[in-house]
Amino acid sequence: MKHAPTIIVLAFLFLLPVVVLILQAGAPGWRFPELLPELTFDGLRFLAARPKPFLTALASSLGYSLTTVAVTLAMTILPAQVLAFRSFPGKNLLEGLLLLPALVPAMTFSMGLHFIFIKIGLADTTPGVILVLSMIGYPYMLRALTTGYTLMGREYAVCARNLGASKRRVFLEVEMPQLLPAMAAGASVVFLVAFSEYFLVFLIGGGSVASFTGYLFPLITSSNRGLGALITLVFLAVPIILFIVLELGLYRYHRKRWMR
């Protein structure tokens, strides 16, 4: 347990803000050194009275974030395979260019894209938001898949091809099961980037595309700190719940596959 102090410090740093948020959400009027907080459910009553904007923003953010994960996965499978298995002049330069959107400030990148999106009619639309989030998030998926392909190696695919399997069957039945951990890692990061993005969604969506961050931001800067803390807890809980579902799904899939 030589890492126990580090784990305790990290757990404290993570849990302390959550505890503060819970206190703010349940007892926004509580101040130290009052002994016991006075609980209030004003935040829940507000959401119960006006559920539509909250649910619309949550559904919209989940929709474009999950779609962004699917788009980045489709965009990066072949480039990741090439970068992992092929050697050619300029490979490092090409990989650096493909990873560039993760290195350039998002504001600089998005201002140029916004002008182009206006010209081609993608500004103020959900497809435009998905496309810009995919362009910002795909380097994380590309990096994860390239590492996954490199660790997997080519031997399994070559063996399956020699036994007569088609390329589609090789990918679906040989490569994809082994790439699932890498896909899950890349998808987790891409989802977090898309779900937590505020500026890009506001700029490209033009206010026409509802987002959870757009719904949350005015609340956390308002005087209603209890409601802002409650919505922030929901914002924190959504990715955690999805990651738990993803981990359980992968566990059950691999367990079922190994028990065949």
How many angstroms separate the termini?
37 Å
What structural class do helix, strand and pairing data support? mainly alpha
Regions with pLDDT < 50 over 5+ consecutive residues?
none
Total helical elements: 12
Beta percentage is under 5%
Q: Main β-sheet, in a few words?
A: none
Total strand segments: 0
Q: Could you give the order of the helices and strands? A: HHHHHHHHHHHH
Shape: globular
Q: Helicity level, as a percent range?
A: over 70%
Cα-atom radius of gyration: 22 Å
Overall mean confidence score, pLDDT: 86
Layout of secondary structure:
Elements: H1 4-26, H2 42-49, H3 51-85, H4 91-98, H5 100-103, H6 106-120, H7 126-152, H8 155-162, H9 167-196, H10 199-205, H11 212-220, H12 225-258
Describe the structure.
- The protein is mainly α.
- The chain has 12 helices and no strands.
- It has helices spanning 4-26, 42-49, 51-85, 91-98, 100-103, 106-120, 126-152, 155-162, 167-196, 199-205, 212-220, 225-258.
- The longest helix is centred in the first third of the chain and has 35 residues, at 51-85.
- The two termini are 37 Å apart.
- The model has no long low-confidence stretch (mean pLDDT 86).
Summarize the structure.
80% of the residues lie in helices and 0% in strands.
Identify the notable features of this structure and list them briefly.
single chain, 260 residues, mainly alpha, 80% helix, globular
